[in-house]
Amino acid sequence: MESVLAVAGLVLVLLGSVAVFLLRTWRWALVAFAVQSLGMGLVALTIVALPIALAKTLTGWLVAGILALTLRREGMGTTEVSVIPPGWLFRALLALMLLVTALALLPDLGGALNDPPGPVTLAAVVLMAFGVLGLGLNEQPLRVGVALITTLQGFELAYLWSERSLLVIALLAAVHLTIVLSVIYLSAVTHRSLEEEVPA
Fold it and tell me: Per-residue pLDDT tens for 106-146?
């Protein structure tokens, strides 16, 4: 049963992280982030108790919900027309190279992370790698925030294998919410400053 959950969670993590990295439309990107968070919870369920894995998933869904409500209220992201960004081929090749590299280095990466199960190692590395790529290729505050949270999700998944302190897990969840609130504020300030410059 655990192997089925691990494989299902890993598939969702791969699909969600790649979609978040490639998609341009906010609505679909946030749906992909929610799928990614569900996959992380399923993978985590193979190494921790259900309440902890559920908390990880719910934290990701809460972040996605807050971002969705903010975008709808502020009317941000509604001007995006194309689902795939202009540089989609470059991003797709980067994603493919990242996945191939992660698979090739899986045994060595497992040793660096204290030898967790294969799905846990691969999911953690993929999340951290796509998060770092997102940090480097995005300039919008909200997208940078999602990329940073994705990186932290990968770190948390690797961390859960070595340490399962409830206090640290709660602090990491608080960090997620702090990040999302900070990027919402920065995005709102940027959005309003751009609106003020348009009439001029």
Answer: 877 777 777 788 888 899 999 999 999 988 888 788 888 89
The CA-CA-CA angle for residues 35, 14, 39, to 5°, reads 40
Its pTM stands at: 0.84
Domain that includes residue 183, residue range: 2-197
What is the DSSP-derived secondary structure letter of residue 164? -
Reply yes or no on whether the pLDDT at 200 is more than 50: no
How far lies 5's CA from each of 33, 36, 111, 124, 164, in Å? 19, 14, 23, 15, 20
Query: Residue 23 to residues 29, 80, 83, 88, 108: CA-CA distances in angstroms?
Result: 6, 11, 6, 9, 31
Number of domains in the chain: 1
